[in-house]
Amino acid sequence: MIEGERLTADTGETGRTLHHPSPLFPRTTLIRRVAAALAMALALLATVITIYPLLNILYLVLRQGIPALSGALFTRNTVGGDMGTTNAGLSNAITGSLLIVAVSLVLAAPLGILGGIYLSEFAPPRIAASLRYLANVLSGVPSIVLGYFGYVVMVVWFGWGFSLLAAAITLTIIMLPYILRATELAMEKVPATLREGSLALGADRSATVLRVVLKAATPGVLTGLILAISLAMGETAPLIYTAGWSDYLPTLQAVHSPVGYLTYVIWTFINEPFAAAHALAYAAALFLIAFILILNVGLRTLVERKSVRS
Fold it and tell me: Could you tell me the pTM of the whole model?
């Protein structure tokens, strides 16, 4: 009998064996397609569930905040006695928020970037692992706990009172682990060929890290800075414990001088039974969203233009 032939069951005649695909394969393909479609549907559902509250909040802030915008918001201060009228503004709150975050960034950015460089390029493995663990732990501490720590240590123990410096140092502690880890991860993603090429051209290790690796890692470092600034701008509890509140513009005095800030306006005025107070709270929330969005888009556009030119 020729190989590949067999006797038929009924006639005994020889015939070619027909190699039909096993019915298992179409069934398996169908199961895979159904599972893929189900997984995609669940992913889309999870995306909608996640994004819908964000879009709902954004729509509410835009709908209530845009009508509340006026020139008086930037020329008048937020005064508690005016919360039931249309005379209140956001001048002191805007100035105070920007000032606190600016001082915090001046303190946190160098420490975080240099710390990330050290972890990525110079730290021994054991020290690097310990510092990463501490950074992860610090990023997981609730901000209100850090605010209370700032109150006990700086406001009470150091005797600074509610002040710009106490608020800025507290926000620095909050921002630091995000900048540090973002810098480290960004530098670790830089290809080793860049380091090798720089060293082959005669540059020492420090010059290679600062002029080649750090430059290539700039977008990732920038992402960490933007995240840290966004977190700092949205904090309320730490500032209640450290900055207090002031109805006046900041005096630039480092200690013994409370500072106003936008999140206090949102937290306080939204709970008042006055329409004007609610409008001011929504206007403050809209300013925060617009500021973070403009900062994000502006810095990323600037970095992309510089990278294209270089």
Answer: 0.82
